[in-house]
Amino acid sequence: MGSWHDARENRWSAGRWPRPGVARLLLVAAMAALLPGFQAVADETSSEEDHDAAGPWTLRYQFEDGETLYMQVRHRAVSDTTIAGTTQSVETSTDSTKVWRVSTAPEGGVVLEHSVDDVRMHSRTSDRGSVSWDSRAPQPPPPGYEHVPASLGVPLSRITIDPAGHVLGRHNLRPIPESNSGDLVIVPLPSEPATIGTAWEVPDEIVVEVPGGPRKRVRTRLRYRLEEVDDGVATIRVDTTVLTPVDDPQLQARLLERIWDGSILFDIERGRVLRRVTEMDRRVIGFSGPQSSLRYRAEMEERLLR
Predict the structure, then answer these.
(1) Residue 259 belongs to a domain with what CATH number?
(2) Buried b (16+ CB within 10 A) or exposed e, 65-81
(3) What are the residues whose beta carbons fall under 8 Å from the beta carbon of 122, sequence distance 6 or more?
(4) Which of 39, 76, 201, 234 can pair with 266 through a Cys bridge, CB separation 3.0 to 4.6 Å?
């Protein structure tokens, strides 16, 4: 039987007072008259600052019709597969520019049209060497990357969301692989105002292809937690829990790339995700015989450019 493991002074310089007299009495009287009012203003300002520091905060997306968002995406992954004493390593790296074009949905919410402007890809296997391609260069793609140019600069999908990031509809315009770590701009937000420590959960379902067998639907749960708010930017932590019992090592191996944890930076005033980092390091044993193992390590960063 296989096993599945996680591998993760405000100084007041006292000047000399004037000699006792009318001037000093007037000054003292003036200070006595102003001090209560000043204290009231100070108390009010302090109260507002304390409220801002403790929340609650309402987290909502704020996109404008006709706006275009550009994201820089960086992905690195290494997989080590061992079967019958032989190990093969595969390293991949991808850097791309993701684009989201915003329009107003007739039924409410906003429509986000997703495309990719450019991509730099590199892969290396322990037994076959390296292959690289940059879509901005004039050279045609090498074998294995022939399908990529057709997916650049064209709409790939349209997603309709509400201000809290709930998906109201999705239409894939071209065949695209399932996202291994969600989409940057549609991180679901809490329905109610949140304070530090507020957590919210979102159910999800992953469809896994198993060679020689039927598709398997696996229920998961994404748990988000507001960790801190600093200068108007919220830090949100997210982790994934698999709810469906998964005992088959082959199925576990197919799930490795789809179960992720990470952190998100959300600009509360601007109403958008600024940065997200996800990472994983997991291993499956016994997916292809008792002496087989698969370890998958990956990290991804998505950063809002403008």
Answers:
(1) 2.30.230
(2) eeeebebebebbbbbbb
(3) 92, 93, 94, 130, 131, 132, 133
(4) 234
Asked whether residue 1 is assigned to any structural domain, the reply reads no
**What is d(CA 178, CA 259) in angstroms, rounded to the nearest whole number?**
12
Contact partners, residue 277, CB within 8 Å, separation at least 6: 262, 263, 299, 300, 301
Confidence (pTM): 0.79
Rounded Cα distance between 294 and 292, Å, is 7
Identify any residues that bridge with 94 across adjacent strands, giving them in sequence order. 75, 121
Question: What is the domain extent for residue 199?
Answer: 61-304
Q: From the DSSP assignment, how many helices (H) and strands (E) are in the chain? A: 2, 13
The answer to whether residue 101 sits within a structural domain is yes
Q: Vertex 277, ends 206 and 236: CA angle to 5°?
A: 85
Q: Which residue has the tokens 């894939």?
A: 172
Number of domains in the chain: 1
Question: Are the CB atoms for 40 and 47 separated by under 8 Å?
Answer: no
Indicate whether 6 belongs to any domain: no
Residue 41 lies in a domain: no
The pLDDT tens digits along the chain (306 residues) read 444 554 443 323 333 333 334 334 333 343 434 444 434 444 444 444 444 567 899 999 999 999 999 999 999 999 999 998 899 999 999 999 999 999 998 877 899 999 999 999 999 998 888 999 999 999 999 998 999 999 999 999 999 999 999 989 989 888 766 554 445 458 999 999 999 999 999 998 888 887 777 888 999 999 999 999 999 999 999 999 999 999 889 889 988 888 889 999 999 999 999 999 999 999 999 988 888 999 999 999 999 997
φ/ψ region of 202 (left if φ > 0, alpha if ψ in -120 to 50, else beta) reads beta
Task: Report the 10 Å Cβ neighbour count for 18.
Answer: 10
